[in-house]
Amino acid sequence: MNETNWKEFINSVLSEGKQFKKISSEIIGETEIEKFSFNGNTQTVVNVGYYSDNTLIFFNFFNPNFPGYNKYSENEYFYKYDFDEKESYGNPGLDFTEINRNGILSMLKNGLKGKEIQFSRNGNIVKSELYISKNNPNFSYHYYFIKRSFIEKLFGQNIEKEKDIKKVEISLSEIFGGI
């Protein structure tokens, strides 16, 4: 691989196996955003944000069947040392370095891990619990997709205990299982 920046690298990796195709590219503010569709799952879209040629801001997956994961991904950005075992955080964005390229390749090879538990009423998802922590498998993110008053939140019945609620558990590997 002779790529000199993130955009060349990402485009090369995603087009290499013919599993992805670019569907759009746009500039919003100072960020260029490319979207790729995943050929194996037509509802899954990869969103990639470049702050500059040498800074990768985000690389996430979107699938309308996983609203909890989508909500989580909206606020997930890379930081300078995300793949560095000796450092933590740093400024926003991954520099175009070997350790970071290997981190992105590992993400792509391993795919998404974890699960989303969805609670629905009349076919509409009202709550989602997302379990993605490797170190603490019981840690979860909770997302609500209905409006509840403050009083309902404090004193009302838990959504998952209501009688007309259906619960479904789905593996995140269904969004993307890896290349």
The helix-and-strand class reads: alpha+beta
Low-confidence stretches: none
* Sheet with most strands: strand arrangement: 1-2-3-4-5
Say how many strands there are: 9
Order of helices and strands: HEEEEHEHEEEHE
How many helices does DSSP assign? 4
Query: What percent of residues are in strands?
Result: 35-45%
How much helix, percentage-wise, in residues?
Answer: 10-25%
Structural summary, described in words:
There is one protein chain. The chain is of the alpha+beta class and 179 residues long. The chain folds into two domains: 6-110; 115-174, no CATH class. The protein is built from four helices and nine strands, in the order αββββαβαβββαβ. It has helices spanning 6-16, 67-74, 98-110, 150-155; strands at 20-28, 31-38, 41-52, 55-62, 94-95, 115-121, 124-131, 141-144, 166-171. A five-stranded antiparallel beta sheet has the order 1-2-3-4-5. Strands 8-7-6-9 form a four-stranded antiparallel beta sheet, covered by helices on one side. β3 (41-52) and β4 (55-62) form a beta hairpin. The radius of gyration is 18 Å and the shape is elongated. The two termini are 17 Å apart.
TL;DR?
With 179 residues, the chain is an alpha+beta fold. It has helices at 6-16, 67-74, 98-110, 150-155; strands at residues 20-28, 31-38, 41-52, 55-62, 94-95, 115-121, 124-131, 141-144, 166-171.
Annotation keywords:
single chain, 179 residues, alpha+beta, 2 domains, 5-stranded antiparallel sheet, 4-stranded antiparallel sheet, 36% strand
